[in-house]
Amino acid sequence: MDYRRIVKMVPAAKREKLSTKLMDLILKSKSADKMPSNLVRTLLHHWQQGPLTTEIGLSTLLEAAVILESEKTIEALKEMLQLPDVAEAIRAVG
Amino acid sequence: MVRFGIEFVPSEPYWKTVFYAIQAEKRGFDYLWITDHFNNRNVYVTLTAAALHTEKIKLGPGVTNPYLINPVITAQAVASLNEVATGRVILGIGAGDKTTLKSTGVEMHKPLTAVEESVEIVRRMMIEKSVTFKGNVFKTNNAKFFFKPTTEIPIYVGAQGPKMLTLAGRIGDGVLINAGHPKDVDYAVDRVKKGIQQAGKSLTDVDIAAYTSFSVHEDMKKAAQAAVPVVAYVVAGSPDVVLQRHGVNKEKAEKISGALKASKWGQAFGLVSSRMIEAFSVCGTPDMCIERITELLKSGISQFVIGSPIGPNVRKAIDLISDKIIPHFEK
Asked: Whole-angstrom Cα distance, residue A25 to residue A19?
């Protein structure tokens, strides 16, 4: 799935809120062992470089969140962030 | 000016701890301490991963013990870690906790001697070509590395009892005082100072840290709720003299201990009172935490370590500490 393409659908004004929500989803996830090691390295690299609100940072977070907490991610996109089209794009590909 | 450290228990997959470590560095913490218990992720694996993803923060085990990890292995581990994070490595070492040692069948034999000897062995391994040591607990025979450690590593001694505190002041480059209440920290710093005097050192030669159980949230109740499990363990492991100092009923502490041993978490946590939370943690809103840290600074500590649980949401708590607490002490 091309998460960068999906992240482009997120308005700039909502990126920080999305980043925060995704961080909490993955950090609180009980399925942390599902996280692929290459994605871990990418995530930690971008986190060290700066905030995870950039396109690449957000797409990494989104990929991780979908792997660990797919339903919660879709729900957060629809309900909390009011981004139903982004939620549908993830559901469609997933 | 007081420096801030943060402690993580590597109880979850390593990347979560490293995520928080990166955040802590970005948000102004000076020290990263990782606990060392065999039942969690390995401390040096976690530290190495953290070292690779950070640049400034000083980092080390907080604390390891010489019973499960022989001092020459500890020396090897920190010397190797120092190649990954040159000049940033610190070593916390203490006697360990009896419960963990008991579960591995290891006896805490002569803790004061064991800690003193292990500190000497680690120091000598860092600077001498080979080390022969004949102690009462540890012995080495021409032990040597096939590599040269790059720099000496500051050694912090973890301490709680009066004799260990004095020893820590005497032999440590730093001391990790396992307490967060002014009554306990005042008492501890006095003992540490005694040791510093015995060694003919000056107070500024030793970094005295209050290593606290900490929980912050804008809602005091949520902060307290998060602190309960950690406080239950602290109460269960506290000596009678400490319980008495805080007016905590010994029988109640024994009930908590019994419930924890029986894995009756609800029962154990239900017995934790607000008095216990106040005595054994730094807990509350940012302003309440600032007030407590201010009190602790009067004792003469130079580092404040924010330990578990940190807050109900660790990520948010780190931001809160960075935004509202650390700046107060930078003024």
From this structure: 10
Query: Each residue of B67-119: pLDDT tens digit?
Result: 999 999 999 999 999 999 999 999 999 999 877 888 899 999 999 999 999 99
**Could you give the CA distance from residue B44 to residue B42 in angstroms, rounded to a whole number?**
6
Task: Report which residue type is found at B9.
Answer: V
Give the H or E element holding residue A23: helix A15-28
Q: Report the residue of B11, B14, B15 to disrupt the A interface, i.e. the one with the largest count of A CBs within 10 Å.
A: B15
* Both tokens assigned to B305: 């370590």
- Cβ-based burial of B222 (10 A; exposed 0-12, middle 13-18, buried ≥19): middle
- Distance (Å, whole) CA B30 – CA B53: 15
Residue pLDDT, tens place only, B212-265: 999 999 999 999 999 999 999 999 988 888 899 999 999 999 999 999 989 999
Distance in angstroms between the alpha carbons of the first and the last residue of chain A: 8
CA-atom Rg of chain B in angstroms: 19
Long-range contacts of residues B195-199, Cβ cutoff 8 Å, at least 24 apart: B195/B165, B195/B166, B195/B167, B195/B168, B195/B169, B195/B170, B195/B171, B196/B169, B196/B170, B197/B169, B198/B166, B198/B169, B198/B170, B199/B169, B199/B170, B199/B171
Can you give the pTM of this predicted structure? Answer: 0.96
The tens digit of pLDDT for each residue in B162-174 reads 999 999 999 999 9
B327 at the A interface (CB within 8 A)?
no
**pLDDT in the model for residue A92:** 83
ipTM of predicted complex: 0.96
pLDDT in tens, chain A (94 residues): 689 999 999 999 999 999 999 999 999 999 999 999 999 999 999 999 999 999 999 999 999 999 999 999 999 999 999 999 999 999 887 6
> Looking at this protein, which amino acid is placed at residue B245?
R
What is the dihedral sign for C-alpha B105, B109, B112, B113?
negative
C-beta of residue B183 within 8 angstroms of C-beta of residue B246:
yes
From B313, B247, B314, select the one nearest B280 (Cα to Cα). Answer: B247
Residues 27-56 on A with a CB inside 8 Å of B are 27-28, 32-33, 35, 40, 43-45, 47-48
Backbone angles phi, psi at B91, to 5 degrees: -125, 125
CA distance B131 to B204: 30
Alpha carbon B324 to chain centroid, angstroms: 23
